[in-house]
Task: inverse folding
C-alpha cells in the first residue's frame, strides 16, 4: 500500500468507559459510532464502508441504518481493528468505498447482549487444550512467560515494572479506570491468578467501545479534525492454540506484522515518537519490543525497568495506561488505536510533545493474530 | 450431586486415531512420508509440505517441560486449584498441552526442561487423556 493515501478523520470512544450497565453491546457500538460521526462532522448517510468484529457487519449496519458498498467482518480477536484499518485503507485506495466506519464495542463487564465465548469439544482447542484446565485468557495467555523469562534472563520484577509504569501513565488520564500509583512490591504481592502472573499483571475487565472513520487523504483536509495519516500497515495470524506456537520466545504473528508495517512506512525504530503495544497481560510489551525489532528480547525487561517507557522516557509506551490500567473490554485493540490517533492529533491527556510518528501494535487471541498500524500527522 | 466434570474432547474423523491410541496406552503422532516432518495435532496431510502421504506411529511418550502456568483462579470445571497447565515438548519434536501428575504443583517442583513421561488417565469408555509425570530414573 502507498504511504499517507488514507487518513483517520473521525475517532471516538463510547461516552462512558468502565461499567456501563444501562447499555447493551449493540448500543455501545452505536454510541461509539455516533460519537465518531459527530467528531468527523459527518452524517450516517455519508458512510459507505463498514467494518466490525464479533458482532456482524449486518447487525451493526442495520442498527445504525448504514447502507454500505464495502464491508469487512474480519474477527481475529482484539487486534481485528488494526486489520480493519489496513483493509479499509486498501479498499479506499482501490475505490471500493470513500468513507469507512470501523466500530468496536463490548459489554465485557456487564455482559449485556454479549454472547459468552465457547469452545466446541470437537474443535482442536476443545480436544487438545480445554481438557487440561484452560479456562479463560488468564490461564492461557501467560503460558509462554516462564520459557520467555528463562531464555532471555527476564526477572519477575522487570515484568512487574510493566504494570507500574503503565499506572504512571494512567494517573495522567482522567478516563483511566485505575489511577492510584503502584509499586513492584504491590504487583508481586497482589492476588495470584495464574503463576507467574498476579492480578496487577492481568488486564482489566470493563465495558466500552470505540469507532474510527477513514477516508482518502485528499478529502481529509476538508474535515474538522487534524488528519492522521496511515503510514504503514501489517497483519498476520499464527495459531488459535497457544500450545502450538512455533516458539514461546517470540510471536510469529508479531514478527510478520510489525516489520511489514515498518517496511511499508519506510521508517526506522529511531523515528518512532510514540508506541502502543496491546497489553492484555504484562509480558506483551516485552514480546512486542523484541518482535517489532526495537531491541533484542533479552534487553526488553531492563529497558522497561530502567524507565525508558515511562512518562519522560525516551520511548513513551502505552500512554493511556493500557489494558492493565486504562480499560480492557475484551478486544482492546480499538482503544490502542484511539490513543495513537489522540497522540497524533496532539490532544492526548498525557500528550507526547511534538510526536509525529506513532506505532500501534495489536494482538488477537493468545498470540493467535497480530496487526500493526503506523500513523503520522505529517503528510 | 455430581461435581462438574472436566471438559471432554469429542474426536473428529481426523483425530480419532489419536484418541483410539490413548485408550490402548499409545501416544500417537504422525510423520510425513515425503519430508519426514513429525507434527501434532493430527491431520491427514503434512502441514510442512502438503503431502497427503502420512503415517501414524507410536511416540516414545518421553518429553520435557517447555513452559506452564499454575492456575489459581478461575478454575476450570473438574479442577481443584492450584493446578499446572503445561506444554510438553515431546522427544519427537511436537509440543502438546497437558497436566503434570505425581508432582507438587509448585514453581519449585516444576522445573523447566525437566524430563517427563506420558501417563494415561481414563475419563470414560471413549476418552483417555494423555497426561505427563516426572520421568523415573
Result:
Amino acid at each position: 500500500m502507498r504511504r499517507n493515501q488514507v487518513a483517520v478523520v473521525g475517532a471516538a470512544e463510547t461516552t462512558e468507559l468502565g461499567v456501563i450497565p444501562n447499555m447493551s453491546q449493540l448500543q455501545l457500538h452505536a454510541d461509539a459510532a455516533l460519537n465518531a460521526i459527530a467528531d468527523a462532522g459527518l452524517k450516517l448517510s455519508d458512510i459507505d464502508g463498514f467494518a466490525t468484529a464479533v458482532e456482524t457487519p449486518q447487525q451493526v449496519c442495520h442498527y445504525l441504518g448504514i447502507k454500505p458498498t464495502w464491508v469487512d467482518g474480519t474477527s481475529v480477536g482484539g487486534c481485528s481493528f488494526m486489520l480493519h484499518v489496513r483493509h479499509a485503507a486498501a479498499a479506499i485506495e482501490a475505490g471500493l468505498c470513500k468513507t469507512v466506519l470501523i466500530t468496536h464495542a463490548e459489554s465485557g463487564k456487564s455482559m449485556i447482549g454479549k454472547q459468552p465465548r465457547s469452545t466446541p469439544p470437537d474443535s482442536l482447542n476443545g480436544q487438545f487444550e480445554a481438557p487440561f484446565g484452560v479456562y479463560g485468557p488468564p490461564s492461557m495467555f501467560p503460558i509462554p512467560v516462564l520459557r520467555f523469562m528463562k531464555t532471555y534472563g527476564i526477572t519477575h520484577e522487570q515484568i512487574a515494572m510493566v504494570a507500574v509504569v503503565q499506572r504512571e501513565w494512567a494517573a495522567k488520564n482522567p478516563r483511566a479506570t485505575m489511577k492510584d500509583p503502584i509499586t513492584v512490591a504491590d504487583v508481586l504481592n497482589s492476588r495470584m491468578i495464574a503463576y507467574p502472573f498476579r492480578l496487577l499483571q492481568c488486564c482489566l475487565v470493563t465495558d466500552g467501545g470505540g469507532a474510527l472513520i477513514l477516508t482518502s487523504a485528499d478529502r481529509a483536509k476538508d474535515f474538522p479534525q487534524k488528519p492522521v495519516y496511515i503510514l504503514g500497515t501489517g497483519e498476520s495470524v499464527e495459531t488459535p492454540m497457544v500450545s502450538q506456537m512455533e516458539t514461546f520466545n517470540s510471536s510469529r504473528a508479531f514478527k510478520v506484522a510489525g516489520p511489514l508495517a515498518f517496511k511499508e512506512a519506510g521508517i526506522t525504530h529511531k523515528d518512532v515518537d510514540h508506541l502502543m503495544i496491546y497489553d492484555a497481560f504484562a509480558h506483551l510489551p516485552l514480546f512486542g519490543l523484541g518482535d517489532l525489532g526495537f531491541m533484542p528480547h533479552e534487553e526488553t525487561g531492563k529497558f522497561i525497568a530502567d524507565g525508558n517507557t515511562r512518562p519522560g522516557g525516551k520511548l513513551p509506551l502505552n500512554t493511556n495506561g493500557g489494558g492493565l490500567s486504562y480499560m480492557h473490554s475484551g478486544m482492546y485493540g480499538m482503544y490502542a488505536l484511539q490513543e495513537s490517533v489522540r497522540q497524533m492529533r496532539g490532544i492526548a491527556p498525557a500528550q507526547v510533545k511534538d510526536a509525529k510518528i506513532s506505532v500501534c501494535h495489536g494482538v488477537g487471541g493468545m498470540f493467535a493474530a497480530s496487526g500493526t498500524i503506523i500513523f503520522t500527522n505529517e503528510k | 450431586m455430581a461435581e462438574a466434570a472436566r471438559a471432554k474432547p469429542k474426536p473428529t474423523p481426523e483425530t480419532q486415531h489419536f484418541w483410539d491410541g490413548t485408550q490402548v496406552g499409545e501416544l500417537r503422532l504422525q510423520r510425513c512420508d515425503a519430508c519426514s516432518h513429525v507434527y501434532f495435532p493430527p491431520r491427514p496431510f503434512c502441514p510442512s509440505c502438503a503431502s497427503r502421504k502420512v503415517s501414524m506411529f507410536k511416540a516414545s511418550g518421553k518429553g520435557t517441560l517447555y513452559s506452564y502456568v499454575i492456575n489459581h483462579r478461575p478454575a476450570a470445571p473438574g479442577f481443584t486449584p492450584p493446578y499446572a497447565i503445561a506444554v510438553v515438548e515431546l522427544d519427537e519434536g511436537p509440543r502438546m498441552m497437558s497436566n503434570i501428575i505425581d508432582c507438587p504443583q509448585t514453581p519449585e517442583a516444576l522445573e523447566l526442561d525437566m524430563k517427563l513421561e506420558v501417563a494415561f488417565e481414563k475419563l470414560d469408555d471413549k476418552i483417555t487423556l494423555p497426561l505427563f509425570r516426572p520421568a523415573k530414573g
